[in-house]
Design brief:
Length: 152
């Protein structure tokens, strides 16, 4: 099975719902879940999204829509992937990749992060709120995952 670099780059979303993460040690998985479950829970309460909903969302390989985009913006903001201007923070995503990705997969993860910086150039209607940009970031990561052959 492919290494799940998608998760390494995108730890803010699915770390709490991962079932198979060969690229991440048990120790790092435990650490990641401990950090992210409170964020996912807090953002979930704010936006009426449950962890069960996220599991189903992941299993069905859905993409964000108007009903959940602000939840993803909340998670991205709280994990530093989205700044207070509503922009994707490349440095934070690269930092997360460096910590969680296997050494041999880091270059691919960094390429995907760099490709997703282009979302900052796209027009959005909600500015610093970040919901529209969160959808763009999420979709970019999914597209990059598919480009590199990662398993979702």
């Amino acid at each position: 099975m492919a290494v799940k670099i998608f998760i390494a780059m995108f730890v803010a979303i699915f770390a709490a719902t991962m079932q198979s993460t060969e690229a991440i040690t048990e120790e790092k998985k435990t650490e990641l879940k401990a950090k992210l479950v409170p964020i996912l829970t807090e953002c979930g309460k704010e936006h009426s999204i449950t962890l069960d909903y996220l599991k189903e969302f992941r299993q069905q390989q859905k993409r964000p829509d108007e009903s959940n985009a602000c939840f993803f913006a909340c998670v991205f903001q709280k994990t530093g992937l989205l700044d207070d201007k509503g922009l994707f923070v490349e440095a934070k995503a690269a930092e997360r990749s460096q910590y969680y990705a296997e050494e041999g997969e880091l270059e691919k993860a960094n390429e995907a992060v760099k490709a997703c910086v282009s979302v900052n150039e796209q027009s959005v209607s909600d500015g610093p709120k970040g919901c529209d940009r969160a959808k763009l970031i999420y979709n970019c990561f999914l597209d990059q995952k598919q480009h590199f052959g990662y398993v979702y």
